[in-house]
Design a protein that fits this description.
With 281 residues, the chain is an alpha/beta fold. It is built from ten helices and 15 strands. It is globular and about 55 Å long.
Length: 281
């Protein structure tokens, strides 16, 4: 098992139970005590958990807490690959699309880079970069201006003014969190404003969000749950959550994440590995 996979499993346990013990992780992951402690140290340094004697606990998170792009990119990679594969099926040649900033939309960008004739508007530096490096024939990529955030998004009045002049077929939106009461949320006020402008520019909104986003609440609401035309999540989402989402969203797609299929995920920067076990089809 790769380090990223172990760390994703550790984070899932922390989110579910609030805390984990080193001894339990050693037994469940079938690795050494030292390996578990290194994983906990890595996750602690990224602000994703708090190390305590004998284990780790969930960190104290404020509504404005915003992890960096590369920190988020290391999490739920299999789920993001499966979700992006389902999202890519919605894209047809000649469409005009928007991709918001985010690591799931980044993976999606790599999958649609060969679709001919599409126009992609994005406020994501990373999405723009991968499309410009690998785009297919007759594609147009438009990157907005704006103020750069830790999530590699360009936000603020300049970005919003540009988005108000475009009309798009689909908007693919990654979110920081989603909740029955607060809807889809973001930890950055200006990014939330920019995301709302993206939504207004499109005829249909497709939200891409893995199971770990449920119950997370950022400082600003981007949209209510029912404002999405399509929600794509993964098979790790529990039935109760799916029932809530199904009542609010007309079309909920559950991407199946499997343990025995390897998929390629695009490189997420100079310090990341290009190949990961994505467990998706």
């Amino acid at each position: 098992m790769l380090a990223r996979q172990r760390q994703a499993l550790i984070l899932d346990r922390v989110r579910q139970d609030g805390a984990v013990r080193v001894a339990d992780l050693v037994r469940e992951l079938e690795v050494s005590d030292m390996t578990v402690r290194r994983d906990l140290e890595t996750l602690h340094d990224q602000g994703l958990l708090e190390k305590v004697h004998g284990g780790a606990t969930a960190p104290v998170r404020f509504a404005s807490f915003e992890p960096g792009f590369f920190t988020k990119a290391a999490l739920q990679q299999a789920e993001k690959a499966a979700i992006a594969a389902e999202a890519a099926k919605l894209v047809q040649p000649g469409m005009a699309l928007a991709l918001s900033a985010g690591t799931t939309t980044y993976v999606l960008a790599s999958l649609i880079a060969s679709i001919p004739g599409i126009t992609v508007v994005t406020n994501s530096i990373q999405v723009s970069d991968i499309l410009n490096r690998s785009r297919g024939q007759d594609q147009t990529v438009i990157l907005t201006g704006g103020i750069r955030t830790p999530s590699e998004a360009l936000v603020g009045p300049f970005a919003i003014s540009q988005l108000r002049s475009v009309h798009l077929d689909l908007v693919f939106m990654g979110v920081h969190g989603m909740d029955a009461k607060t809807g889809y949320t973001c930890p950055n006020l200006m990014e939330a404003d920019t995301d709302r402008a993206l939504i207004e520019a499109g005829r249909r909104l497709v939200v891409v969000a893995d199971h770990s986003k449920w119950g997370i609440v950022g400082i600003a609401t981007i949209a209510g749950l029912d404002q999405a035309d399509v929600l794509i999540t993964d098979s790790g989402t529990d039935p109760e959550t799916l029932a809530i989402l199904g009542e609010a969203v007309p079309d909920v797609i559950v991407a199946q994440v499997q343990a025995d299929v390897t998929a390629s995920v695009p490189s997420l920067g100079p310090h990341s590995s290009r190949e990961v076990v994505a467990r998706a089809h």
